[in-house]
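Notes continue from the previous slide.

Worked example: a multi-chain complex. Inputs as given:
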Amino acid sequence: MSTFISYTLEGLFTGAAYAIAASGLVLTYSTTRVFNIAHGAVGMVFGFLYWDFSVKQGLPVWFSLILVLLVVAPLLGVFFQRVLTRGLGSAPIGVSLVVTVGMLVALIGVAQQIWSTEDARVLPEFFVGKSISIGDDINLSYHRAITIVLSGIVAAGLYVLLTRTRVGTAMRASVDNPDLLELYGGKPKTVAALSWAVGTSLGALSGILLAPIVGLEYFGLTLLVISAYAAAMLGKLTSLPLTYVGALLLGLASSYLVGYLQYLPGDKYLTGLPAVVPALFLALILVLLPQAPLRIGQVKGLVAAPVPSLTKSLGWGAGLLVVVFVASSGMSNANLLLVGTAATYGIVMLSLVLLTGYGGVVSLAQFTFAGVGAIAYCKIDQPNLFGLLLVVLISAGVGALVAFPVLRLTGLYLALATLAFAQLMEKLIFVQPFAFEFANLLQAKRLSILGYQFNTNRQYVVMMAVFFVLVAVLVLALRRGPLGRILIAMRDSQAACGTLGLDQRWFRVALFAGSAGIAGLGGALFAGLRQAVGSADFIYFQSLLLLLFAVIWGVTSVTGALLGGVFMMYLPEAQATYPDVAGLLFVLIGIGAVVIGRDPNGLANKLFGFPRWIQTTVYPFLAGRYPGLALKSREPRAAEDEDEPIAPGPVETNQEVDSDAVAAR
Amino acid sequence: MSVPILDVIDIHAAYGRIEVLRGVNLTIPKGSVLALLGPNGAGKSTLLKVISGQMEQTSGDIHLAGVHVTGAKPDDLARAGLTTIPEGRSVFPNLTVEENLLLMSYAGVAADKVFDTAYSYFPRLHERRYQLAGTMSGGEQQMLAMARALSSDPALLLLDELSMGLAPLIVDDLYETVGRIAQSGVSILVVEQFARTALRVSDYAAVMTGGRVVATGEPDEIGEIMADVILGGAA
Amino acid sequence: MPLLHVDDVVVQFGGVTAVNHANFQVEAGTITGLIGPNGAGKTTTFNVVTGLQTPTSGRVMFDGKNINRLPVNRRSKRGIGRTFQRLEAFGSLTVADNVRVALDIKRGLRGMFASTGNQVHDLLELVGISSYAGDRADSIPTGTARLLELARALACEPRLLLLDEPSSGLDESETEDFGRLLQKLAGEGVTILMVEHDMDLVMSVCNEIHVLDFGSIIAYGTPAEIRENPVVQKAYLGYSDEGPVDPDGPTNDSNHDTAVLDAVTEGAAQ
């Protein structure tokens, strides 16, 4: 009995901390319609900052708390709202996801930069060592008791703010109709800034409360956001009372699972289960949510990157292969592995071009699919084309399984479901004996095609480049063909697609499966390259980085995927070479995504505009200055074929596409 | 002659490339009611959006009581005495009646006074003060919207399609309230599809089609041509 | 048997009744007008028929079968096509590709890789916008985009075509062409139900007109009958003919006020 009470108290503590975090998330989402994926990272950074003030610099606890919770956190919240996420509430959901993922990565970078990994850090509990005794053998530490009480105070405070004050009422009003609030004479911007100030402060508080128990660590606390939004989802991201209920249920469920796991059958395979309770809880709620209605109105086309013709894409692909072939001769093995890694990232990024760039659906789990592919490749142990095909089918099947339950929902929920899925796989499946276990590496053989074995690193890397080009050509052919047109049409207007007779649910499953299949292919080739892979290669953070790199370089074009892949490969190299700025690089990428994320065509599209810019701006300027040069010039080409709409390619390409689409289903 | 409360001078406005207002001129003398009529898509609501600061014109000027207000924000205008009741239900459906009234105090009148005015005009609202506005009938929601016009003591009141989707008797009631506000000396610009209803309470009328004001005059004169303008010519 | 029967449909949003026991039929092969003042519930009715809006009560019968439970796309396969009042063209695709997508969807996964031949061009030619074929759909004028939506809907070869404000954005001569196009389509057996504010167009092409006012059908008949109907005139021009309000008029009697509201609230609840 006393153990039961202990577990209950522990669950109440965790639930209370979750509730504080989740209420901050709900507050910001419900007033500005921006879902802050970085909410957990906020808690993490402020856990560190509080440690810095109170432990490292030795400031008094109360003063550190005031500094963090009432000064720095609210200011950061206002900065987030005013500068980083402004206007995102009405933007496509993909954009606000990318921007907040950018914030998440930037915050992790900030933490790593300021509080580098070497120092050992322990954040003590409040009133460490003191506890309340209940009965003979149950102790509730002051820290936990304070947390539980604080969650009640936060609840009461929010209740008073939202229902008893004018500005709180205005917060709720601005959810429905900020324009009307302006006509009333209110200031929706001030209201939004205030709610972000309060929300960020609550995120910080939850981080400070959880850090002594969970440990001051970059990634663990950041994933707190999953627990927070799982709780918030019970109240559909808007109801605070239901959010509290959700948080307490989650806390208790996790705690009881920790306590009583040993009584479950197969418990030794389930050691990761308590950690994924929030993800499971979330998945359950998502499946039970009702169908989202089709959106009508407010349609505006996106200016997408140009789609090259088949000849042109083949030409560029051949060019790329020549470059890889020539450059790889005489390259060191270490460098060859890097090129192979870049090819892997490029292929996985192509899966994102298909899914996000064309389909407008955001996934935060592409590396998890790559991990599935890698495991399948190692386990099937058929290092040939047949084995590879099986790998693609398995990954696609897993992708379909993820997409299927959340089909009826909108983009935000789908993206959140993928993040939860990534965490589930990482904590529960990848650690199984048949997969990576804990730090185990799975052995993989080099691929052979039609009896030809790619034994040397150089051969293998060139082969990977060929795969990248093939997938790229395939993705482009798909985009030019009828399926690609339908994808774009679906992104532009779901209502119109429906009234034209398209069954969008299956189309979306097929899209998701196809994308997961490509990611799985990348993972399998990666396993063959390294000949040994571990779970660290496929953590969720990689998927977030992938999304950011893809968006920065252009998620709507194959070129963007290539450049993104190269730079993503280079990031850890750069961090190893310049460890002093390792964190800053994350910050740079995060900020880059925040800045560029509003234009999904990214930097690659700017490159496409470059020749034209030379011809229309630079050349006339130079020609005006130095007329002698004009002799060598020619008129700007009349037909820049990049901009021309391209008719469907030749029949054989289409059939290739067709079989792929069929396979994907 | 005193300065007009509203002077709209050659306003052009567009949604993207589509020009909706093509040089609108309109003047409302202080203390009078102007009915702005016209078929759908004539640009009436767009004009109100420009006047209330919700949308920026591409060219032209607006003077409120002689003050040049081009570029002013809606919330600044609201606090300066311009009350706009936009098309549709201009209340917050997920707030209670009392909370809606509380927000009306942002325009500069103390909350207690807003409650007093609203409840004395519409006892019905007092009965329903803890009810969510969105669960009330359309007429009651429009009463709540009118409570803002009544309590905020505006210099100029903009009303857009008060009658939309409401039963005739309720529309008549609403316009009685409008008439009473007018008698207290408030200048009003009424946009309305029901020509006759709006003309009853107005001192002047103007007709818009195709983004321009095509006729202005006394309510009677305008009333005679409205049937042709709306139900199609040569009957 | 009518092709479409909207049977006692009610749609409520919160406390507001957008469609209030609407009841009307559309005969096959006709052009039927659905008119009424702003906010009368016309677009909501269209959304109910096409499945984008679930009715609070009532049912929609198409070709004699209750289609209430069919999802949007299945209704399209049965032969219901539509255009939108707030444009839903695929903005990032060209005009030609907008139509091509519709053809692809209609032909399904097996058919979509075959050539469409001249179909795209023919459809654009039919509605008169083939000169825009290569332009992005978000760069063309509103009127043209409405015609594009019509061409796109026609690509699915609908039996019943719902047009929501199709002529707004067209100039006079374009509207006349459009009227002739509608009659041609009707002659080929397409049944058309049209929400439209241009009364000249409605009166000249419709066989029958239904007038919707605050969610209910208040009148129906031929164009001539509708034009003469005093109920319709009232609905459009307002309800009061008593002249200006007496400045010293009746003080607002709250009992009277309440009685009216009660009557209406009860009406909506029933």
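Summary box: The first strand of chain A starts at residue 131 and ends at 134. The interface with chain B takes residues 163, 166, 169-170, 172-173, 175-177, 179-187 of chain A (CB under 8 Å).
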